[in-house]
């Protein structure tokens, strides 16, 4: 049987592949990414992280069973530690001022993504939340695995290597597996609104990468 995750992904495969193989990811892995582009990306990504925490919090609230809530809650604690230190280190390295971090002008994709996340939280529906979480996380695992040839070709610069590490360590792989299993457990492969939400999240992911160069 075709799973909800497979149905969702094949419905938006063009934009999905464009995001995975995006110039930003390729340049990051080959250490040719302009730090100015990474700096701009991370300032916007910090704003994005705000909505991501809300989405994950709503996932805890909406999940249909305790063991899922515990796994989701563990991830909240994890990103508040590990992810946070990557961002703090970069903001120090790139001399990002508190004023730049506090309410920067949002790019169109940041606005689009924030609206999608807020709307998804408002549905209070676990399957909807999982569709959006799956895009955010499995798309990142996919580029980090594919573009590094499963970790055989890694960048050297700490700012690039650190970002790859976050997205292909063992804990992250297990987390993405969990999200996909959950989506397949509670999501209906014939739910067109679900695959439309998944496609919208993929669209904004692609635009998010494009906006770092604009
Ligand atoms: C636009 C955008 N999409 C996905 C990710 C991957 N990701 C989503 S949430 C999270 C943990 C909290 O930062 C990570 C690593 C990202 N960083 N930025």
From TrEMBL:
GO biological process, one term: thiamine biosynthetic process
Domain of life the protein comes from: Bacteria
Cellular component annotations (GO), alphabetically ordered: cytosol
Record's catalysed reaction(s): 4-amino-5-aminomethyl-2-methylpyrimidine + H2O = 4-amino-5-hydroxymethyl-2-methylpyrimidine + NH4(+); thiamine + H2O = 5-(2-hydroxyethyl)-4-methylthiazole + 4-amino-5-hydroxymethyl-2-methylpyrimidine + H(+)
This protein's pathway: Cofactor biosynthesis; thiamine diphosphate biosynthesis
UniProt-listed InterPro entries: Haem_Oase-like_multi-hlx (IPR016084), TenA_E (IPR026285), Thiaminase-2/PQQC (IPR004305), Thiamine_Salvage_TenA (IPR050967)
CDD domains the record matches: TenA_E_Spr0628-like
Start and end residues of each Thiaminase-2/PQQC domain: 14-214
The entry's keywords: Hydrolase, Thiamine biosynthesis
EC number(s) stated in the UniProt entry for this protein: 3.5.99.2
Record-annotated active site: 205 (proton donor)
Binding of substrate, residues: 45, 83, 137
GO molecular function (one): thiaminase activity
Assigned protein family: Belongs to the TenA family.
PANTHER family per record: BIFUNCTIONAL TH2 PROTEIN (PTHR43198), SI:CH1073-67J19.1-RELATED (PTHR43198:SF2)
Record function comment: Catalyzes an amino-pyrimidine hydrolysis reaction at the C5' of the pyrimidine moiety of thiamine compounds, a reaction that is part of a thiamine salvage pathway. Thus, catalyzes the conversion of 4-amino-5-aminomethyl-2-methylpyrimidine to 4-amino-5-hydroxymethyl-2-methylpyrimidine (HMP).
Name of this chain's protein: Aminopyrimidine aminohydrolase
Originating organism: Bifidobacterium fermentum
Species classification: Bacteria, Bacillati, Actinomycetota, Actinomycetes, Bifidobacteriales
């Amino acid at each position: 049987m075709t799973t909800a995750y497979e149905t969702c992904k094949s419905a938006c495969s063009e934009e999905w592949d464009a995001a995975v193989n995006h110039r930003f990811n390729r340049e990051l892995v080959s250490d040719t990414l302009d730090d100015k582009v990474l700096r701009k990306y991370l300032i916007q990504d910090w704003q994005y992280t705000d909505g991501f925490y809300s989405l994950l919090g709503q996932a805890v609230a909406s999940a249909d069973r305790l063991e899922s809530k515990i796994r989701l809650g563990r991830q909240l604690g994890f990103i508040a530690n590990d992810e946070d230190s990557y961002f703090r280190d970069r903001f120090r390295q790139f001399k990002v001022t508190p004023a730049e971090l506090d309410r920067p002008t949002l790019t169109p994709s940041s606005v689009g993504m924030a609206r999608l996340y807020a709307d998804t939280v408002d549905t209070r529906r676990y399957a909807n939340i999982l569709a959006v979480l799956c895009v955010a996380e499995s798309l990142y695992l996919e580029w980090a695995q594919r573009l590094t040839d499963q970790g055989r070709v890694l960048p050297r610069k700490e700012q690039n290597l650190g970002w790859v590490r976050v997205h292909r360590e063992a804990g992250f792989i297990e987390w993405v597996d969990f999200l996909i299993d959950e989506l397949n457990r509670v999501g209906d492969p014939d739910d067109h609104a679900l695959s439309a939400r998944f496609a919208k999240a993929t669209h904004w992911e692609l635009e998010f990468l494009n906006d770092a160069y604009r």
